[in-house]
Amino acid sequence: MVLILGVLVLSGLIISLSFLTKDSEENHIQKIVKQYDLLRKSIIKTFKEKGELPSSLMEVNNISELKLSYPFKLDKNGKFILLKIEKESLAKGVLENVSDLSYYEKPMLYLSIYGKSNINEPIVEIRVSPDDITTTSHIKYSYKEVSKDNHNIIEEVWQGNKDCFPSAGDYEVTLKVKNSQNIWSDEAKKIVTVTEEPGIKKIISSSKILFIVYNNGQLKYQAFSTNKLKLPVTDEFTIYDSLEGVLDISMNYDHALVQINDRTIKAAGSNGYGQLALNTKIDKPNFTKIWGLENVKSVQTGDKISAAMTKGGLYLWGKNDEKQIAFTTQVYYDMPQKFNQLKDVKEYSVGKDHILFKTKSGKIFAQGCNDYGQLGNGYSDNVLEIQEVLLLNAKIIHAGDEFSFAVNEEGKLYGWGKNNYYQLGMQGARVKTPMIINNLEDIIYITSSEKIIVVVTEKGEIYTWGTYISGTEAIDFINPHVVKGADSVKGITICDNKIFVLTIDDELFVADHHLELEKLEIR
User: Fold this and answer.
1) How confident is the model over 153-173, as a mean pLDDT?
2) Distance CA 450, CA 252 (A)
3) Considering 207, 313, 393, 439, which has the largest number of Cβ atoms within 10 A of its Cβ?
């Protein structure tokens, strides 16, 4: 006859132990508590080394050396060690010897990894977003408090937590926190893997300089004539060595704003009206950081005026002689001014000396110079308050050199303002209210210089009109003409009286007044 005192059923992960004597039950309690304590210490050690809790026993350092004889498991978050026990007295005996955070829900015993007493030392886990980080990503850091000691975190010490990384690689980020008991945590670690995003992001230009912005934050330029950035005139593209992590650049006239991938701004060039926001009117050929503007979403420049959309709203600064910035008697602002004329600005477009605003409802408003009717209010007089453009809802707006454009919800193009170089694709010196332009439809992009307009349709067709200058000759295109020679347009800009087109294959093409695109080599 065989007397069964107890059965340890490992295959079912259940400790039945229904017939244990008091002595044998106590023995199992001591063994469970001892093995649990060894296991939880290994879990905490693994967390401190790797920066995150293991989700299975296989991820625990040196698990085989523990020689566990009970079928422990981990919950999916790694905070509890699980053990199935049918006998309540056995489970309660274990609970009397472990953390107050542990509990029993028959048949599962939940053993906290924090030991017998409530842990006072805080334990945190670093969180990073986005999941896939490239050299153009804006990285956000946070942490999750793994321990539950009911003491608030009152201080954080981060190291290596850069908003962006300009080159690919693995970067270590560390964090220590202090709780309200003035107890510091061990150092949590996280490896941030950054990959390089290849290819060209966009092309942008002023009348004198063509810029290429790469996805990895590199900036190249080709200067066609002397300029306020004092870049040398070249016949090939040159890397802008002093800038890295570039997301965007705007330079319509003689000063430039650069958006960096940490969502800050740098400025350079002409500064006679404070358009560089450096609290001075001295020109700066080298890019200098603008302090006070963070979480920047976009930047634009006009003639001596600047704009930046941030997470907190739109800011304007620079020349104000035509009320481009604010309706005051101040001639210029050398520091960013919060735009408060409208509360729901979704988009903006900066022209030479006027600005268009589009609200979330699609309405268009304008302020600044109105000598040619570029504010679209039916007049050519200067105004003392922001003007609503006489046009129904728009999906695209574009402020140019004393003229304006908008595309309505049906994709039709409207223009108004100065027209002495046929910028509006029609006869006449100026137009004070929005007029439809030659029945062009499905417009998705607009760009312009002082005398030339270029648009792109949904089908990838490129149209241009205005006046091209070739030497001393002016070539007029009163009506829109097709530009041939490139498919799948990714970006387009105008520089040095030429059209530059970037395709989705990152090939660059150029066309003059003959309107035939030819491929350029980018070295």
Assistant:
1) 89
2) 10
3) 207
Region of 497 on the Ramachandran plot (φ > 0 left; ψ -120 to 50 alpha; else beta): left
> What is the spatial distance between Cα 485 and Cα 477, in angstroms, rounded to a whole number?
19
Q: Which has the closest alpha carbon to 192: 258, 270, 137, 261?
A: 137
Q: For residue 3, is pLDDT > 80? A: no
Alpha-carbon distance values, 24 to 5, 85, 92, 403 (Å):
9, 15, 15, 93
Instruction: Report whether 501 contacts 467 (CB < 8 A).
Output: no
Output the pTM of the full model: 0.71
pLDDT of residue 147: 66
Residue 163 has which token pair?
């908003």
Cα(309)–Cα(381) distance, integer angstroms: 28
pLDDT digits (tens, 9 = 90+) for 228-242: 999 999 999 999 999
CA angle, 212 then 214 then 218, to 5°: 90
Dig out the tokens for 145 from the structure: 């408090």
- pLDDT at residue 61, rounded to an integer: 86
Helices (H), 13-167: 22-50, 88-95
Q: Which residue is associated with the tokens 């030429």? A: 498
Q: Find all residues with CB under 8 Å of 62, minimum gap 6, and list them.
A: 42
For the chain, helix, strand, coil in percent to 5 are: 10, 45, 50
pLDDT band at 138 (very low <50, low <70, confident <90, very high): confident
Q: Do domains 124-195 and 198-315 have the same CATH topology?
A: no
17: pLDDT strictly greater than 50: no
* Beta-carbon-side half-sphere exposure of residue 518 (alpha carbons within 13 Å): 5
Structure-token pair, residue 157: 């010490």
* Topology at the third CATH level for domain 124-195: Immunoglobulin-like (2.60.40)
Question: What CA–CA distance (Å, rounded) separates 361 from 310?
Answer: 20
Fold exhibited by the domain 198-315: Methylamine Dehydrogenase; Chain H (2.130.10)
Note the residue count of the chain: 523
pLDDT in tens, 75-84: 877 788 999 9
First to last CA, the chain: 91
Give SS3 for 352: coil
Q: Write the single-letter amino acid at 199.
A: G
Angle at 318 between CA 313 and CA 319, to 5 degrees: 130
Q: Where are the domains of the chain?
A: 8-112, 124-195, 198-315
> In angstroms, rounded to a whole number, what is the distance separating the alpha carbons of residues 272 and 371?
23
Is residue 246 within 8 Å of 288, Cβ to Cβ? no
Contacts of 385 (CB under 8 A, 6+ apart): 327, 367
Beta-carbon contacts of residue 192 (< 8 Å; ≥ 6 apart): 128, 133, 139, 160, 165, 170, 171, 172, 173
Rg of the chain over CA atoms, in angstroms?
33
Contacts of residue 255, Cβ cutoff 8 Å, sequence gap at least 6 = 228, 267, 268, 269, 270, 271, 275, 276, 301, 304, 306
Is the Cβ–Cβ distance between 118 and 149 less than 8 Å? Answer: yes
